[in-house]
Amino acid sequence: MARDAGVSPSGTDSPSPSAYRRREESITLAPVEEQIDGVEGSETTEELLTLNFGPHHPATHGVLRLLVTLQGEVVRDIKPIIGYVHTGIEKTAEDKAYWKVIPIVERMDYLSYYFNAMAYCTAVETLMEVDIPPRGQYLRVIHLELNRIASHLIWLGTSALDLGAVSIFLYCLRERELILDLFEMSSGQRMHTRYFQVGGVIEDIPAGFEAKLREFLKVMPERADEYGAILNSNEIVLQRLRGTCPLDAETLLSLGVTGPLLRAAGNPWDLRKAAPYSSYDHFSFKIPVGTVGDNYDRFAVRLAEIYESVHIIEQALDGLPEGPFITEDRKVSLPPRHELATSMEALIHHFKLVTEGFRVPPGEIYSPIESPRGELACYVRSDGSSKPARVHMRDPSFVNLQALRHMSRGSYIADMIATTAMLDPILGGIDR
Amino acid sequence: MPDATGLELLAAELGDATLETVYFRERATVVVDPVQIRSVLASLRAHGFTFLASVHGVDHYPEEPRLGVIYELLDMGRVDRITVKIRVPLDDPRVESVTADWPTADHQEREVYDMFGVVFEGHPDLRRILMPEDYEGHPQRRDFPIGGEPVIFTRDESKWLETRE
Q: pLDDT tens-digit profile of A217-274?
């Protein structure tokens, strides 16, 4: 079996292990001394149990596999093993015209598809120096924040499910339905909407969207109050969240963790405030932060973010400017349908855009936005052709997963389940 | 972002490690000598760029040196970003790992190794991360073909392994 430099499996010559075992051999666990290190009164002679957790386990929130080393019931080491849903999205993107990449990158982090599209579109727009009309920016903000709420609702529901609170999952999905109905209204799709385009959004919101959205905005804070009331008076949930697996902001920063996990530890870093994009500086909103950075803070920060998102959408809807929703630059965006019937030029533009796509000036760009899980950035390298030479997503789940080991070491295995839930990993984004 | 002048000043401070500076679309990039990457990142950290946001790879096919590794640094206090880039040749893609200084680079360097075959010397656990560990080749390289990936089912797994040995 050919293997590249740097790694050599131990014991390849051992008497005929099964093919399955042979492929496992390169995974080495941390030395026993390191795993037990820092535990008072522990003897290295004490037996350690290695537990294979996942990849098919309801509490791993996807196809995540964890090799957990246990001393009794206490977690001593965690090794995440990922790649089970790697689909080569970044490779596929290199084979598509720029505008055809959007539906592919949307499928990475499948709960925050608007954010994936946004990160990619802003990267390409910066390369092309395309300006987004104000209405397009506001429509983007509305959909991004709706998507943030939807993503947090799924997180809240599935996390509560892990903690034994079953009914909240149904309530969360009930509200998410309302959001998906709105997405269906504006774009025709409930998930992976392809609504964001390079230069703006594909279509204006239809009649009746605003009324329905206002209805939702009225309902959502009340429902979020209810979630808080249910969970904050549930003694079991509180005991499993309060004071479990805290991690300080400094360690989190060294591990590259951003988003609600970092804010729960008291660092108010949020790109929407720090480096506003897409008119986020027009809206007033607060950034919820925690104090000690335990699981309860992680829960409370995300729940509070739902209210702030509602607040942002309200302002964006009230101040929604008139005008075009996508750039008028015909070299980038498709001409409207009625122009095709009368204008030869529009027909040529349409033909060029659909067949070849637009060309992007050569260069490289790294464009970060704030996703529900942290800094989601898209790196695009263009070689001047109509296909990207490299698309890379800096997915927050992928980076944040490294913190799980540091959070859970020395805690009970039950707390590790709660921590995995509060980490909010999306395996589609991790594996890409 | 440091402006164009700020970038030049910063590059001058890095001394002979700097190979090239690029100021493009209001983003600052400094291309540095791959041998000195650790000291460059350390001196930028002293400048306030204390957060390593991302490490990712890129293939400059067909130009040599082909493989690139990009380090995205962030200064949270001043909301400032700088991109540090290195280029290594395909026949000797070795670069020192920065995981010891920046723990966040662990998984990301493994991904660059997996996808591009850049070997990070001194990395504590350099294994493939996304592809299966017996996979051959580095799929994100530009000359790696798309398609033709065999689908392995359990029933013919042993047969498949035999043919590969």
A: 999 999 999 999 999 998 888 998 988 888 999 999 999 999 999 999 999 999 999 9
> Which is nearest to B32 in space by CA: B49, B15, B54, B55?
B15
> CA-CA distances (angstroms) from residue A155 to A45, A167, A424, B23?
40, 14, 6, 40
How many Å apart are CA A332 and CA A138, to the nearest integer?
20
Per-residue pLDDT reduced to its tens digit, B70-82: 999 999 888 889 9
Cα dist. B30→A173, A412, B47, B87 in Å? 47, 46, 15, 11
User: Tokens standing for A271?
Assistant: 């790109």
Taking only Cα atoms into account, the Rg of chain B, rounded to an integer number of angstroms, comes to 18
Best A255, A270, A406, A409 residue to mutate vs chain B (most B CBs within 10 Å): A255
Q: Which residues of A touch B131 (CB under 8 A)?
A: 83, 86
Q: Provide the residue count of chain B.
A: 165
Phi-psi label, residue A266: left if phi above 0, alpha if psi -120 to 50, beta otherwise: left
What's the complex ipTM? 0.88
Q: Compare all CA atoms of chain B with the CA of A123 and give the residue at the minimum distance.
A: B25
Q: Which two tokens stand for residue A237?
A: 């949930």
How many residues make up chain A in this entry?
432
Cα–Cα distance measured from residue B165 to residue B146, given in angstroms and rounded to the nearest whole number:
23
Q: In what order do the strands lie in the sheet with A390-394?
A: A363-371, A374-382, A390-394
Residue among A355, A424, A415 nearest A73 (CA): A415
Substitution target from B111, B134, B163 for chain A, most A beta carbons within 10 A? B134
| Cα A304 to Cα A326: distance, rounded to the nearest angstrom | 32
Distance CA A56, CA A76 (A): 22
Burial (CB count <10 Å: 0-12, 13-18, 19+), residue A49: exposed
User: What chain A residue is nearest to B61 in terms of C-alpha separation?
Assistant: A389
Interface of B with A in 79-118 (CB under 8 A): 79, 81, 83, 102-104, 106-108, 111, 113, 115, 117
Backbone angles phi, psi at A303, to 5 degrees: -65, -40
Q: Which residues contact B63 (CB under 8 A, 6 or more apart)?
A: none
Q: Is the pLDDT of residue B125 over 80?
A: yes
Handedness of CA A251, A257, A262, A267 (dihedral sign): positive
CA distance A294 to A419: 9
